[in-house]
Amino acid sequence: MADKSAAQSLKDKLFLKNDGIKGINDVHLKASEQFAKGYKVFLDNAKTEREAVAFIIDLAKQNGYSEFKAGKQYKSGDKYYINNRSKAVALVMVGKESAKNGINISAAHIDSPRLDLKPNPLYEEADMALLKTHYYGGIKKYQWTAIPLALHGVFALKNGEVINVCIGEDENEPCFVVNDLLPHLATEQNKRTLNEGIKGEELNILVGSYPFKDCEESESVKLNILNILFEKYGVTEADFLSAELMAVPAFKARDIGFDGSLVGAYGHDDRVCAYAELIALMDTKNPTKTCVAVFADKEEVGSNGNTGLASDFIKHIVRDIADYSDTNVFEVLKNSRCLSADVNAAFDPTFSDVNERRNASYINKGVVITKYTGSRGKSGTSDASAEYVASIRNMLDNANIIWQTGELGKVDAGGGGTVAMFIANLGVDVVDLGVPVLSMHAPFETISKFDLYEAYRAFLEFNK
Ligand code: MN
Ligand code: MN
C-alpha cells in the first residue's frame, strides 16, 4: 500500500489543478489593480462601438500608428490602423517574418447590448415626451427600467455632416429613464413570465415634460423637446430617420466589494477583452509575426453587416497585408492563428444549476479558454482543434499565466456564440480566450481585476 505522501505526490502529478488567484504575489496583484484603473477610464469613455473606435484610434496614434495607405510598401516595425466606418477598427503591427508564414490575429467586439432608438422615436402622450426603442442584442428587458440612462450616438444629416450626441453621462446634465409600473398596481403584470415582465414595446424612454412656452398648439411638450434639440444640435424630427442613437446605462465603472477586487460596469462584454487586446498590442515590441488586433461591431446581433466579422472585413485587411508581403490572402490565412477575444459566463453560486461545475469558468481563476461555444449539440461554433488548444496551453503555462477552461453553461441549458467561427471559416486556427463575467448582458456587469490582467498577459504572449 502506498503511503500518504506518495499518493499525494502522484495526485500532484496527475490531477488537473488551478489555484487561481491563491498564491499570487503582491507585486502581481498590484499590477492587476493598476491595469484596472486604465480599464475603467476606457469603460467610461467608450460605451458604444463608435466611441470605442475613437478611443482606440486615439491611443494607437499616440503610440505611432497612422492610417493605412493602399499601395504603400510596409515593412517590419510599421504600425497602422484601418477604420471601418467609424464602427469597427483593426490595428496592424508588421512583424519581422513574412506574412506568408501566417499572422497573429486577436479579435474582440466593441458593441454591447443596449436600447436603440427607432427611426421615428419621438412622441407625446399624457403631457410627457417619450422615445420609442428597439433593443439591441440579448437583454433581460426588465433590467433596463428605472435606471439612469444616457443617450449616445450620431445624427447623420443630408448634407453629409455627422453630429455626435452624448448626453446624460455628466452628473450636471439630465439623464433619461424607462419607467416601470408600481408594485401596488402590478397584479396583472406580476402574472407575466419574466421574459414578458417588461415587453419590447414598453421600453419607452422619458425625455421631458415642460410644454413649449405660451403654446396653444397640441403636442407642445414634443415641440419643446424638438426646439431644445434644434438649438443644441441643429436637427429636426426628420433627422432621427438617419440617426444611430442608443440609450446605455449612465453609471460609471466602479470597484466592487469591501476589498475592491472586482469591477462593476456597463459593457464588460466585450470591452474587457477589447481593452486587454488593445493594451497588449501597444506593449508589443518587434513581433516575429505580423500582429492584427481587430475590434468588431455587431457581434451582439450575429456579426452580420459590413462592420461585423461575418463580412469580408478581415479578408480585406489580410489581402492588404498579403499585397505588400508579396503573397496572397489565402496563403496568409491558412497559416494564421487567432484568439477570439470574448467573455464567458462566470459561475454564480446563486444560479449554480445552469452550470456544470467541472467545466464552468470561475471568478479569479484566470483567463478562460473556451474550446467551443454554441448550443444544442455544439451547433453554431467552430470548436478549436485539440492541437491548437495544446499550443495555446503550452504558451500560457510557459509564461505562468493563470488560466482555466470554461464551457458556456451546462449541456442544453441555453448557449451562445462569438466571432470565433467566422474567423475559423476563413481557414484560420481559432480558439476563444477571455474573461469570466457575472451578470452578463445586464446594465451593470461584474468582472475580476485579476482575470482581466491575466487576459492582457495572454494577448501580450500571443503577439510575441
Ligand atoms: Mn461577447
Ligand atoms: Mn454578448
List keywords for this structure.
464 residues; alpha/beta; Aminopeptidase; Aminopeptidase i, Domain 2; 2 domains; nine-stranded mixed β-sheet; 10 helices; 21 strands
How would you characterize the overall build of this protein?
There is one protein chain. With 464 residues, the protein is an alpha/beta fold. The protein has two domains: 17-112 and 266-463, 3-Layer(aba) Sandwich (Aminopeptidase), CATH 3.40.630.10; 114-249, Aminopeptidase i, Domain 2, CATH 2.30.250.10. It is 27% helix and 23% strand. It is built from ten helices and 21 strands. It has helices at 4-14, 26-45, 49-62, 220-233, 268-282, 313-324, 329-334, 386-398, 420-424, 449-463, and strands at residues 66-67, 79-84, 88-93, 104-109, 114-125, 128-136, 149-156, 162-167, 177-178, 205-208, 243-249, 254-256, 262-265, 291-296, 337-341, 344-345, 367-370, 403-405, 429-434, 436-437, 445-448. The chain has a nine-stranded mixed sheet, sandwiched between helices. A seven-stranded antiparallel sheet has the order 8-7-11-5-6-10-9, with helices on one face. α5 packs across α10. The longest helix is centred in the N-terminal third of the chain and has 20 residues, at 26-45. The protein is globular. The mean pLDDT is 96. The structure holds manganese (II) ion (2 copies).
